[in-house]
Structure formats: structure tokens, C-alpha cells
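Render this sequence as a predicted structure.
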Amino acid sequence: MLGQIMLLVATVALLHAAYSTYEHLSHLKALGRPEGSLPNDIVLETIAALFLAIVGATVRSPPLREVTWRSEMKRRAQEEEEDPRLSFSLFAQRAGLAPKVSPASTSL
């Protein structure tokens, strides 16, 4: 819930910063000075919105899964357990375009 609120506030702040930038540039154009830097408050609002969005997305993300050899092998298909080198096979071998080399026929 906190992450969603942070993302919502960050989105609103970023949209407000974009609108403020548009208004500032329109004001400069009306004065005949199209060159000029953005005010510091707009830049700070944009940076704060970006930071808030990053933190909100981090808080909102699901917990990380365990990535170990054991947990990875639990999820593999039966054919990949027979030949663990299958993930290193060429595309042509996986598609059946090239003959499959059995593990017993290869020697180092």
C-alpha cells in the first residue's frame, strides 16, 4: 500500500513538474527570451519525484526468489534434466535442424 501511494505521489509530482516547465518556457517565450535555464524548484521537484518513484517501486516489488542450483533444477523440465547442456545448445540443434550430439559420444 505504501509503495502504491509513493508511486502515485511521484507520478503527480512529475506531471506537475512537466506542467511547470511548460508554463515557464511559455513565459520566457512571451517575454521574447526563449533561452534560459529552468528554475531550481522545478529541477528539485523532478529529482524528488524520480527518487520517490524509485523507492516506491522498490517497496512495491515482490520479495526476491531464491536463485540456487537446487531451486533452479526443481523448475527445469524432464528433458533438460537428462542433458544439462541443453541450455547451451545452438538454436539449430534445439529446433531439430542439426543432429543432436549425445553426451556419451563426446569426449574431452
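Summary. The helical segments are 2-30, 40-60, 69-75, 78-82, 91-95. The mean pLDDT is 79.
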